[in-house]
Amino acid sequence: MAKQINPTRMELTRLKRRLKTASRGHKLLKDKQNGMTKQFMEQIRRNRSLREQVEAALSAASGKFRAASSSMGEPELYEALMLPAGEVGITGDVNNVMSVQTPKLISDGGLSGTLPYSFAGTSPELDSAVLSMIKLFPLLCELAECEKTCDMLAAEIEKTRRRVNALEHVMIPDMQRNIKFITMKLEDNERQNITRLMKVKSVINDR
Amino acid sequence: MEKKIKAAVVGDKSRVAMYAAAGVAVYHATERHDVLKLIQQLDSEGYGIIFVSEPVYAECEDGLKKYVSQPYPIIIPVPDENSDGSYARQRIAENVKKAIGSDII
Question: Cβ–Cβ of A88/B18 closer than 8 Å?
Fold first, then answer.
């Protein structure tokens, strides 16, 4: 690298300016990485506990559905479930976490809890199963938001770490080496010049 | 830029039917190609949250990577009647490894 550059004052000024920018960029990216890691640790802990809660609630609900299915028959169960239960009201927005656009969900609490099917042909187990799923929905939304945030932060942290490492271990040392090379070359030229002038002076004096 | 979004679940219909009770639209797809096509279609129809059953998600994970960089749609694996949630836990561990360098949690 050092052999390909022009040892000129202009190049030296350009390199010094680039080094300044790179150092500032490195500091900023490092701060961004630290901030994101802090946020990520909070989110991932939340994600883990939400996962556990959702899994437990889902397996309980699934048990209730199995009980309902065994008491009223599978086709009737699906028929009851396929009736439109209404639209869930979720509002989606965007959160800014260290310049990463993450989703932000605002759930209005899920469905109202009125059962859409006729009670004549369904079993009471189905009612409790459906109600537990309705209750679970806000938690599912929270999990979706948290998990997506974690995914996005993890990807962004990895990207930022690569950039920080590239700056710290490749670009900045390279520029410092080049600056040193140019400075030494310029000093060398200066010394050559002085020697030449001294020689010329002595030749003139000798005449 | 607040907007109303809808939720859907994709997987083996008989295993994810219970999500319909919570007002989530249920779609049946288990083959990788069908799932990816369906998700693309759901995204264009304005579904902001797409739950995918764990075995199906595991099968087409690499095809879903392109959605990671954008906030919506949110595509996450959810346990169906037969899965135990180990895949989702493994995903969390992978995320920690990706971000921190080792699984310290």
Answer: no
